[in-house]
Amino acid sequence: MKSKHFYAHLTETTDIILELGELDMSSEERIHLLSLVEANIHSSVINTVLSNLDEKNKKIFLNNLISDDHSEIWEHLNKSTNDLENKIKKTIDLMKKELLRDIKKART
Amino acid sequence: MHQKVKHPHYEHLREKWTKRHKQLQSEIFDKHKDSFEWFVNNSKQLTIGTLAGIFLLTSPIIPKIQTAFSSDDVAANKTIDKKAFVVHDLKNVLPQDVRSLTQEEEKNVGEILSRDYGMNVVPELDGKRLNTTYGIIGQEQHLARYPGDNMITHFDSLAEQEKYWDYGMAPGLGAWGYFSNSRDAMSEKDIQREKYYIAVQTFLVPGFNKNPKEYTDFFKYRKMLVVNPQNGKAIVVVIGDAGPAQWTGKQLGGSPEVMTYLERYDGSQRGPVLYFFIDDSNDKIPLGPIYL
Lengths: 108, 292
Known about the structure:
The complex is a heterodimer. Chain A is mostly helical. Helix content of chain A is about 75%, strand content about 0%. Chain B is built from ten helices and eight strands. In chain B, α5 packs antiparallel against α6. The two termini of chain B are about 40 Å apart.
C-alpha cells in the first residue's frame, strides 16, 4: 500500500503515540491530537522543501505534490537540491521534539 | 443534549497544536505566496481538496479542526475558490475591530484589492474621500427607478421577484432622484445602477458642506468596489443614495442585490465591508458581482 506522504519513511511517531497514551483522555481525543501531530509535521516539511527551492522548482514541486507520485517528487527534489532528505529529517525531528516537550509539560 | 466532558490535557494540547499549525500555515503562505498564486491560476484541475492537500490546511481531514475548508467542501470536490487568497491577504492588514483605517492600512488594502480584482481601487479620488472606507453595512430597500415604478413593475423576471420581493421599496427616492425620467427612457445602465447601489454617508464627508454641489456631482453614481473581507466576495456598485443616519451605528447601506451577493445581513448578524473608489474614468468596468 502506498504511504500517505512522500516523506513517510522519515517519520517515526511511536514515541509521541506512547507519550500521549500516558495522558488521561478518550481515544477520540487522542486520535484528534495525533492528527494535529501529523498536520504540524506536514506543514513544517512543506515549508522546508519550498524554502530550499527556487521559484521554478517550487512550481514543479507543487505540481508533483498534487499528482502524489512519490518517486517523481523525490526524483525532482534530488535533482534540484542538495541533501534535502536530510534537511527534511531534521525538520521532522525538531518538530517532534517540540511536540514531545509540549506533552511532557502538559503532564506536569 | 448530553455533552461529553473534555479532558484538560487534551484541551491544552489541542489549543497549543492548533495554534502552532495555523502559524505554520501563515508562514508558508506568506513566504511562498507567489508560487501558490501561480499554481492556483495555472492549474485547471485544482480543487479545494487539492489546495488543502498542499497547505495541509485540512489534511488529514479532522472534523474538529476548524479551517476555512471543511471536509464537506473537499468531498464535494469544488473548484478552487480564489477568494480564499483575498480573505487571507486582507486578514493580515485589517484591524481586529471595525474602525476607520489609517492611511497606511488604506494603502495596503487598496493595493490588495487592485491586484486581486484587476482594477485600480483607491481610497481617494480627485482629492475626495468618504468618511470611512471600512464600515458596517446595513440593508437598504429597492428604489423607484422612474415615476410610477413599483413592486409590480420593478423586477425583470419571476425568479428575481421571488428572490428580492420581501425587501420592499423605499417610500422616498434615492439621493439623486429617479434613475430615469420614464419607463421608456430607462436604459440598461439605469437598471443596473438601481440594482447595484450603496448608500454612503456623504453628509459626513469632510468638506461636503463647504461645497455641496461639487461633492454631490462627484459622488453621484460614483463607481465603487465593495468587498466582504470575511468571504472575499466583491461587487462593483454605484453610490445611489445617502445614508444611513449616524445614530444607527452603520456606515453604509446596500441594495437587496448587493447584500444578498455579499452575504451580509442587517440586525444582530450585521458585519463590515470595505468600500473603495474604482478609478474607471472610461466607464469600462461593469456593475455587479466579480467572479474570480
